[in-house]
Amino acid sequence: LGASDTSAHLPRTPLPLTGKSYRMEYYVVAMNAHGAVVDALGSATSPLAFLVTEDAIVHPTPIYKKWWLWAGIGAVAVGAIATVAIVTNDGLPDAPLIGDVSEALR
């Protein structure tokens, strides 16, 4: 790190095989511009650690398993079928909703 750099950069670490738990050990040393240790969290001989298990790793649900995708595909398919049926049959069928109203009022 340079004298004006205030960020820390960690090396990439490969993850172990899927299904295996592992222990991640680390320590952090803060140094000033002259290389003197200002503060430390853990050490090389006594690192901090945490356990990583398969349960702790969250795998996102694939898009083809989302309910809303299939609902949208179904809605588009129904709309397309209805549109084709209406266009090819010259519109909606003529069907009276109620019989002759004048006879119903007598």
Give an overview in words.
With 106 residues, the chain is α+β, with helices and mostly antiparallel strands. 25% of the residues lie in helices and 18% in strands. The protein contains two helices and four strands, in the order E-E-E-E-H-H. A two-stranded antiparallel sheet has the order 1-4. Strands 2-3 form a two-stranded antiparallel ribbon. The longest helix has 22 residues, at 67-88.
List descriptors.
single chain, 106 residues, alpha+beta, two-stranded antiparallel sheet, 2 helices, rod-shaped
Residue windows where pLDDT falls under 50 for at least 5 positions: none
Class derived from helix and strand content: alpha+beta
Shape: rod-shaped
Radius of gyration: 34 Å
Q: Give the strand tally.
A: 4
* Estimated share of beta-strand residues: 15-25%
The largest sheet has its strands arranged as 1-4
Q: Sheet with the most strands?
A: 2 strands, antiparallel
- Name the helix and strand elements from N-terminus to C-terminus, one letter apiece: EEEEHH
- Helix fraction? 25-40%
